[in-house]
Every structure is written in structure tokens, then in C-alpha cells.
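Summary for the steering committee. One of the milestones for this cycle was to obtain a three-dimensional model of the protein with norvaline bound, which we needed before selecting residues for the alanine scan. The sequence and ligand used are listed below.
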Amino acid sequence: MTVRHLLTDLDLTPGELTEVLDLADHLKAHPYAIEALAGPQTVVVIFDKTSTRTRVSFAAGISALGGSPLIINPGEAQLGHKESVADTAGVLGRMVSAVVWRTFAQSGLEDMARHSRVPVVNALSDDYHPCQLLADLQTVREHLGSLAGRSLAYLGDAGNNMAASYLLACANAGMDVRIAGPAGHLPDDDVVAAARERAADTGGSVLVTTEPARALDGAEAVATDTWISMGQEEGTVDRTSLFGDYRIDAEAMRRAAEDAIVLHCLPAYRGAEIAAEVIDGPQSVVFDEAENRLHAQKALLTWLLVESGLADAATADAVGAVCRRGHDR
Ligand code: CP
Ligand code: NVA
């Protein structure tokens, strides 16, 4: 059996994405129903950048699955300065059941996966944040009732990891995804092409534009993210004047659907990418979205172990029952 990883949002087929989301809903309703990490088995969670949600949701989720989280904070491991990714992967695979890694270069994650005998999960890289998108899609489905055909607009730094993940994950879910940002801060052409290709299979659609109004027009979900991602703090560009037209405020929300939901992966900067009255207002679902990191990642870890042939029979049976039920819907 091939070991399965989640390095980008397209590492799951559309059907697999539905399975993970169904499992996430099941684990939200029955938090201790599946003990995929009974033993307790250890999952290592390595951070090269800081974190609140990712750290806590993985730690709590791994514990709730009967496992033991090992958190490695920035600078604490030999990885990155004294030891290669390949040797690290070789060692970790002898000791842990999965490797979760927040890092800078996507190529590091690819290298880790290439040398790993256990699942590797991207907990945010410079290029993608696929765990966040699992939680976002779970949240959109909870609030809008479905994903396929639903519209989502992302405004702001459209060249960052969240914009790329919205593009890919929403296309994978068959959604109508619109991404708006200033010229020079739009998703890479190859990411847009990959999203369009996946949307052609799922019935979704993709719009990348510099015009915020085109993205917002009637959108059922509206999302944004910080204008300064981790690693960009030292830049000299005046990002407030660069991204100001893409702020999510009351005026922007008037262009979206009347009952549109508002997403933000957090941390948020009120008054910059999003107005306080919007993120703290009745349309905001950002704390449901944050909570769903827990459920979605528990589902992901469980699903990856089953699909990699690394789960026990009870876990495989439990996952099979939930996912079959989903297929029958
Ligand atoms: N949304 C998110 O990944 O938050 P953290 O950086 O706090 O993990
Ligand atoms: N784009 C942000 C997301 C934080 C969760 C960053 O990379 O810092």
C-alpha cells in the first residue's frame, strides 16, 4: 500500500475530500468514537513558524484519538541546520505514526514525504495551508448545507498560501471560487491552471481578478487573510496602500449575498484586511472555522492512516462505515 500524505489541497481527490469532511462531521458529533492512535501512538508536530490554532488543534486532536502529541517548537530539532530532511524522515518513521510539519519551503515537505514511511501533513508552508481549508470547507458545508456550486470570494493578498489553498480546495469541492488581489499579488499561473483543471472535473469554476467587486458579486462566503504572512514581516512594501481596496468591510459585504458567511483563518488584524464590525458581526463564522481545525485534522490523520494501511481493523471499519454512509447520501 502506498503511504498517503497531504502536502497540497489536491492530494485528495474530490471523493476523498468528501470522505474526510464526512469523517470530520462524525468526529465533531462523536469526539472519542474513533481511537485511531490508540497505544498511545505518537504523532510529531514540528513548527518552523509560530502557531496557536495549529499547535493546539493537533495536540488536542491527537490526544482525543488516543495518541500522544510531540510538539517541536522552532529551532528545537536538528532538522534545518544540522540534519537533512531525508535523515530526519528516516528516523521519525521508526518512532511515530505521522509527521505534521509547519515550514517555509514546500520542497521541504515534498522531500520529507519522499523519504517517509508514515503520512506527512502540511501544517502550513509558504505555498499552501491545506489543513485550514479542510476546516473552512467543513464550516462552509455546515452553514450553507453543501459545497458544489456554492460561491466563495477571497480578497486581499491573493499571492499567499491561503489564496492558493482556497483556489485548489474550492475547485476540488466543485465550488465557484473567486480570488481578488492587486496585480503582482495574484496566485501563480501553475496553481490557477491546476485549479481550473480540477474545476473542469468537479463542475466548479475559477475566477482570478484584480477587481474586488467582480469577486464579491453575490458571493455566499467571503474570506480574507492577513496582508503580511509569516516570513514577510521585514518587507519594505507599504501593504496597507497595496491591499486597501481589498479590505472586507461593511461596503464590501453589501456586494456579497445578503446572508453571506465570513471566514478568516486567524490571526486577524482588525482595521487592516477586515473591519472589526465584520469579523465581530453576525455573519462571521471564524470561531466555528477555528474549532473545525480540531475535527478536520482528527479526520485527516485517521483517514491517512487507514488509506496507508497503517490503522488497526477497528479504525478501518469505523472509517469505512462513516465514508460508505456518505457515499450513499
Ligand atoms: N490559522 C492558523 O493556522 O493559525 P495558527 O497560525 O495560530 O496556527
Ligand atoms: N497567510 C498566513 C496564514 C496564517 C495562518 C501566514 O502564512 O502567516
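Key point for the committee: The pocket of phosphoric acid mono(formamide)ester (ligand 1) is lined by residues 51-54, 124, 132, 265-266 (CB under 6 Å).
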